[in-house]
Structure formats: structure tokens, C-alpha cells
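Sequence, please.
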């Protein structure tokens, strides 16, 4: 008999996990729960979540409660008679009443728990300069990401990684970990282990203040911040008093005053930091599109010169 599952998730990471469950053929996905459609981009076009797109392609029932707790959708979901719930980057807390209505509820969380509980574990792994990032399959409880751990796996963080590339890698890790571990967990042969409370750390969603570059930090710290916020929410500094987004940068040679332009030619812009220097690669001045540093220096930034400062 097939295990009946309610799947809950929202971004591409979750869609990859759902795809794995669908491909297995031993699980019946009764319904998918995802965040409501949102307006995105400059044109504010309404866009479906990646999980919804995949669910509709497989003719699955879709629920999109603004808040699942106390909603009619939650009652409807409970009435489906699922054996369990699988979540991956869903974006909402699940009420105890819902968790208690099924035999099991597991979450595919993109960190090596108990490190980085919360909504932005991949961002923090990069920003903090971690050597590895991973995924933990855990039991769901009322407290955020605090359930017993079923299994985990990890990958090396490469110098070329950013939030986008690491999300893609960990989505595959999470998919494979779930497919490998779920049968043994459901049979009782894989026993979950409690998290070590003394090693808990958190990764709350990035707030706007954290997006701003502090040029007094080292070049390595700023490099990690830039890639830890690319492609979203994107790091920024100030140029001519306006927001100047930095999408990509590299640690460079040379020392100089923090925030000061040290090298400026037609193809290169190097800025001093608290330790070392940073070469800006992809940027976006206020009111302009995202562009290469070459296009910026030969256009909007043609008046920028050595000795000028960012963030002043």
C-alpha cells in the first residue's frame, strides 16, 4: 500500500524535493500546500510558486492559505486522511493540531542542525564563511526546526558558490536524503536523534540593515557577504548618496582606506576594505539595470576616479 503524503513547500528547493517523491512511485501525494501567488519584479506580475507549477503539471490538488493555522484549508487538508506530511522550505509554522492529525511529519531543512535553525540557513553558511553546508531530515515539532534528526548530508562550499548555486546543490542533496532515509524511518529501523541544545544557532531571514556593506570589514568578509546575498536579497553600498547594489565581487590584491577606490580603469574597479581590497564585478547603480563592472565604468561610472569613496 502506498504511503499517503501531504507535501508542503514553496521555492525551487522544495520543488526538487517534491519531484523526487513523485518519481519514486511508492508515495501518493494527496495534495500540495504552498504559499499564495505573489507579485514579483518591477512590473509586479503575479507569479506562481515553483512548487505550485510542478503540482499543477502533475494534476495535484493545491492549497494556498495565507496562514494555515485556523484556516478552512487546514480543515480540508486534515480531512484528506494522509499518513504523513513532508515539508521543505514551506515558510509557515504548522499548528500542533495539524501535526497531531498524521502519523508522521518530517521536514527537509537546508542546514546541518542544530546549526542554523530558521529561514535563511544557506545565506548564513556563506556569509559566515563555513566550509560545508548541508541538509537535515528531521521530525517536526511546534518549536522551529527543533525536532529530532533523522539523517543529514553535506557538500563542500566552493569559492564560486553563492546562494543560488548552493540552493540548487542542496536541493538535490535534500531530495536524495529524503528518498534514501524515509523508507527506513517509516519502518522504524532508522531512529531519530535529539539535537544538542548547547550547539543551537539561528539563521533568521536577512533584514535590510544586514544587506549594507561595511567597508571596515575584511575583503574576505565582504566577499562572503556579497555571495551570501546573491541572487537575493543583494548586498549594497552607497554611491553619490544613493543605493548601489553589488551582485558579484572578488577578493583582490592591495591595501587602502576602507571604501576608497584604489584601482580604476576601463575594466576594473578595486575598493579598499578594513583588510585587503575587493574587486567589484557585477553592480547596479540606482535607477539603472544590473550590469558588468565594465559597462558601469564606461557609462554611469565614467566620472568615478581613484581616491573617491563609496558610502560617503
Amino acid at each position: 500500500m502506498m504511503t499517503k503524503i501531504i507535501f508542503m513547500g514553496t521555492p525551487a528547493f522544495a520543488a526538487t524535493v517534491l519531484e523526487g517523491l513523485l518519481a519514486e512511485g511508492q508515495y501518493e501525494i494527496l495534495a500540495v500546500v504552498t504559499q499564495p501567488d505573489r507579485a514579483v519584479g518591477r512590473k509586479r506580475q503575479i507569479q506562481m510558486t515553483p512548487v505550485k507549477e510542478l503540482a499543477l503539471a502533475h494534476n495535484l490538488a493545491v492549497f494556498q492559505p495565507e496562514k494555515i493555522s485556523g484556516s478552512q484549508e487546514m480543515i480540508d487538508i486534515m480531512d484528506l486522511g494522509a499518513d504523513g506530511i513532508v515539508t521543505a522550505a514551506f515558510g509557515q509554522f504548522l499548528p500542533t493540531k495539524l501535526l497531531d492529525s498524521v502519523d508522521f511529519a518530517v521536514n527537509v531543512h537546508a542546514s546541518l542542525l542544530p546549526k542554523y535553525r530558521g529561514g535563511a540557513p544557506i545565506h548564513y553558511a556563506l556569509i559566515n564563511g563555513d566550509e560545508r553546508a548541508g541538509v537535515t531530515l528531521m521530525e517536526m515539532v511546534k518549536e522551529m526546526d527543533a525536532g529530532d534528526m533523522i539523517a543529514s548530508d553535506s557538500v563542500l562550499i566552493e569559492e564560486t558558490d553563492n546562494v543560488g548555486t548552493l540552493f540548487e546543490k542542496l536541493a538535490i542533496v535534500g531530495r536524495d536524503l529524503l528518498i534514501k532515509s524515509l523508507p527506513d524511518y517509516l519502518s522504524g529501523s532508522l531512529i531519530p536523534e535529539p539535537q544538542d541544545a548547547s550547539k543551537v544557532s539561528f539563521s533568521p531571514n536577512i533584514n535590510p540593515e544586514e544587506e549594507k556593506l561595511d567597508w571596515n570589514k575584511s575583503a574576505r568578509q565582504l566577499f562572503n557577504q556579497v555571495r551570501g546575498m546573491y541572487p537575493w536579497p543583494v548586498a549594497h553600498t552607497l554611491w553619490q548618496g544613493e543605493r548601489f547594489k553589488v551582485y558579484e565581487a572578488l577578493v583582490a590584491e592591495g591595501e587602502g582606506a576602507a571604501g576608497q577606490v584604489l584601482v580604476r580603469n576601463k575594466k576594473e574597479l578595486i575598493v579598499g576594505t578594513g583588510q585587503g581590497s575587493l574587486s567589484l564585478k557585477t553592480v547596479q547603480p540606482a535607477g539603472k539595470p544590473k550590469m558588468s563592472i565594465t559597462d558601469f565604468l564606461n557609462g554611469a561610472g565614467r566620472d568615478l576616479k581613484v581616491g573617491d569613496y563609496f558610502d560617503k
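The longest strand covers residues 242-252.
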